[in-house]
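Hey, I was hoping to borrow your eyes for a little while. I've been puzzling over a protein and I'd love to understand its fold better. The fold is given in discrete form, as structure tokens running alongside the sequence. I'd be grateful if you could look everything over and explain what you see. No rush at all, and the record is pasted right below.
>
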Amino acid sequence: MQLFQDGSLAPVNLAHTPVAISLKEAIVWFAPAGDRISVKLDEEQAVFIVGLEPHHIYLVEVDDEEMEEAEADSGGIVELDDVPRGHDLGIRFREEK
């Protein structure tokens, strides 16, 4: 995986990636199940969890919200749609058993 940063190409080592990469339009989270991130989303930012098992069901919990099921797509990506904006919050997920 590669990321353009400060006008140049930078490789991203998924084994040593920070918990999340914040881009202008999105937060991209390379996370094994059981991890948690703390974020403050702008109004326009989307949240993507990547590197998951394709078509696998995960349980996603956002602070002060009900736990929900989310299925990774064929590329192993989950997009979180209904995440509160404008204040600090935690998001965690785990594999459904």
Remarks:
- The mean pLDDT is 81.
- The chain has one domain: 2-95.
- The two ends are 30 Å apart (CA to CA).
